[in-house]
Amino acid sequence: MESLADYFKVFSEPNRLTVLETLRPGPLNVTAVVEKTGLSQALVSKHLKLLTIAGVVRRRPEGSLVFYEVIDKSVFQLLVQARKLMLASRRQQLDALAAIL
Amino acid sequence: MESLADYFKVFSEPNRLTVLETLRPGPLNVTAVVEKTGLSQALVSKHLKLLTIAGVVRRRPEGSLVFYEVIDKSVFQLLVQARKLMLASRRQQLDALAAIL
DNA sequence: TCACGTCATAACGACAGCGTGATACTACAT
DNA sequence: ATGTAGTATCACGCTGTCGTTATGACGTGA
Question: Are the beta carbons of A89 and B8 separated by less than 8 Å?
Answer without folding.
Answer: no
